[in-house]
Amino acid sequence: MELAALDRVELRVSAADSRTIWELSQRAATLAGAPTTGLAELLLDVPPAVRGPLLTFASGASRSGYLLIRGLQVGEVPATPVQHGSRALAGHGTSGTLTLMADLLGSLIGYEDEKNGALIHEVHPVQGEEARIENSGAVDFDFHTENVHHPLRPDFLGLLCLRQDHEGVAATRVASVREAEPLLTDREREVLQSVRFQSAYPTSFSRHIDGPRPTTGLHPVLFGRSPQSFMRFNAHNTVATDAEGEAALRALSRALESVRHDVILAPGDLVLVDNHIAAHGRSSFTPCYDGKDRWLRRCYSLRAVPRWAEQMMGERRVVPALTRITGLF
After folding, report:
1. Chain mean position to CA 129
2. Which residues of 220-253 are buried (b: 16+ CB within 10 A; e: fewer)?
3. pLDDT tens across the length of the chain (329 residues)
4. Cα angle at 298 between 297 and 304, to 5 degrees?
5. Which of 43, 108, 227, 286 lies deepest, with the highest CB count within 10 Å?
6. What are the b/e assignments for 62-74, b being 16+ CB within 10 Å?
7. SS3 for the chain, per residue?
8. Positive or negative: CA dihedral 290, 294, 299, 300
9. Cβ distance 126 to 83 under 8 Å?
10. How far apart are CA 120 and CA 81, in angstroms?
11. Cβ of 277: how many Cβ atoms within 10 Å?
């Protein structure tokens, strides 16, 4: 199937393929932390109707920057946690589902600096953190490149829905630079391609850092050559060094808003985002902390982990702490 046929089109998994993927997922969940090569047999058994579109999406030729897969199984889901660090889904089949999907796109990875290197992240509201601009919050979360500050930021991220919010209104918002760029002026594009921006570490990476959040060195926001453009941008954390740059950032935000796609995930829906093409965000919702709040599971995938980074990893698949790799790029 050509990628153009997949852009902005839902891929609905057949009942038979869904059963097969769930069986493979339960087996993969028992191999937590195994290398991609250790899952090769399972990856080859993923039904072609799903594996083919995933491999095509992994090529990076997408215009919309996302792929929505509906109809996956999620098994029995316990009460939504209300605090960080829940182990309620340790060994759960959905861990295997995300591992398989991430390894078809590249390699499932985590970050030593984020959530203690967890490979699968629980995305649910945490009481007292409703206003935080991260996955424990419930307020609007504007468009952002995941881990915008990181030299080895993910190539892809996946969000698998286990449970919707009570009102069924919370949307994952996705906006592609390849759809937004034509709305910018030539000068705005030129400014956004210049090295005059820097990005602060997101709060999920700086919870235990005293003082102001660290920032990156200067970087462009847009790079690549149109129509194969890429983006490094966080509406909350990316700033310019001058007024013209700030105006260009505002223009980009407006353009992204104009082309956004609101994806309301139901249980068994998985949205995959190309992190260099599309920024993503979240609409607000009202948590109740009654065990039935919105609950997604998140994974990251990296197409290629540098050999030196791999050899520095304290745990397989976990990217070393920034304090150990800063300045290497």
Report:
1. 20
2. bbbebeeeebbbbbbbbbbebeeeebeebbebbb
3. 444 444 547 899 999 999 999 999 999 999 987 888 889 999 999 999 999 999 999 999 899 999 999 999 999 999 999 888 788 899 999 999 999 999 999 999 999 999 889 999 999 999 887 656 556 555 577 999 999 999 999 999 999 999 999 999 999 999 999 999 999 999 999 999 999 999 998 877 866 666 688 899 999 999 999 899 999 999 999 999 999 999 999 999 999 999 999 999 999 999 999 999 999 999 989 999 999 999 999 999 999 989 999 999 999 999 999 888 877 76
4. 150
5. 108
6. bbbbbbbbbbbbb
7. CCHHHCCCCEEECCHHHHHHHHHHHHHHHCCCCCCHHHHHHHHHHCCHHHHHHHHHHCCCCCCCCEEEEECCCCCCCCCCCCCCCCCCCCCCHHHHHHHHHHHHHCEEEEECCCHHHCCCEEECCCCCCCCCCCCCCCCCEEEECCCCCCCCCCCEEEEEEEECCCCCCCCEEEEEHHHHHHHCCHHHHHHHCCCCEEEECCHHHHCCCCCCCCECCCECCEEEECCEEEECCECCCEEECCHHHHHHHHHHHHHHHHHCEEECCCCCCEEEEECCCEEEEECCCCCCCCCCCCEEEEEEEECCCCHHHHHHCCCCCEECCHHHHCCCC
8. negative
9. yes
10. 15
11. 27
Token duo for residue 87 = 């182990």
Bridge partners of 238? 199
